[in-house]
Specification:
Blueprint (H helix, E strand, L loop, with lengths): L2 H20 L4 H10 L4 H22 L1 H4 L3 H24 L9 H14 L12 H20 L4 H12 L4 H26 L4 H22 L4 H21 L1
Length: about 250
């Protein structure tokens, strides 16, 4: 890897970390850059996943204030995404790469529709009902499978699902999203480190860039009003779906 390549990967990691902290879909920046500097698709995917974990942790740290009082949600949602990520990671390593690609854009558009159409709920910071707790684990598992296998716009899909399930402000749900995505990506990364080839130089550059980018993204993203954040999620989601449709 040349110095110019390294700077490109570092910059991509920074951008992805900021985008993931606020919305999601940062992999659409880092993955193509890793391909462009010469890594194979599998190595790029695995190395990207390992590197962005550190950005996910940084994003969750940046949303500490919004996570206050959400310990139970984070534990239950994180358990679901952890189990799902194991399944998704195994699928990635055993199934052909394009198995689910045809349905992914449609799935993202459904998530965007949920963000647009759902009426604003009566907000509550209280504990969840039994059924909502089960729903949180189930949603975490499903998104964890998706994230472990494919991952594009994982944050968009999860945030839309959380908004549908939990009556709370979008910024607080975004903090919860960052924790759940971080757990899913962390579990998948551990699996990849054990059974796949990681380009550690690339992963380290993505990690450093995404850590800093996530802090910047969290600092400014937390100031965005819920309505602005909602439309930012929709805009990014639609853009990602269009990119995937074109591909």
């Amino acid at each position: 890897m040349t110095l110019l390549d390294a700077l490109a990967v570092l910059a991509a990691g920074f951008a992805a970390g900021g985008i993931n902290a606020i919305v999601g879909s940062g992999s659409l920046i880092t993955f193509p850059v890793l391909l462009a500097v010469g890594y194979s698709s599998v190595t790029a995917n695995v190395s990207n996943s390992v590197g962005l974990v550190f950005g996910n942790l940084s994003a969750a740290s940046g949303y500490r204030a919004e996570l206050e009082g959400q310990r139970e949600r984070a534990l239950m949602g994180g358990t679901g995404t952890a189990l799902g990520a194991i399944v998704g990671g195994v699928l990635l390593l055993t199934l052909p790469e394009g198995v689910f690609e045809a349905v992914v854009p449609a799935l993202i558009l459904v998530a965007c529709a949920l963000m647009i159409l759902r009426p604003k709920p009566k907000l509550s910071h209280g504990s969840l009902s039994h059924h909502r707790k089960i729903g949180l684990v189930a949603i975490g598992f499903a998104v964890g499978v998706y994230g472990g296998y494919f991952g594009a716009a994982q944050g968009v899909i999860l945030l839309a699902a959380l908004r549908f399930l939990i009556p709370d402000s979008l910024q607080r749900l975004n903090g919860l999203k960052n924790v759940m995505v971080g757990v899913a990506n962390g579990i998948a990364a551990i699996l990849f480190v054990i059974v796949a080839h990681v380009a550690w130089e690339a992963a380290a550059l993505v990690a450093v860039g995404s850590i800093v980018g996530a802090q910047v993204g969290a600092r400014y993203g937390r100031r965005v009003p819920d309505e602005g954040l909602r439309w930012a999620v929709v805009t990014v989601g639609v853009a990602v779906a269009i990119i995937l449709f074109v591909k």
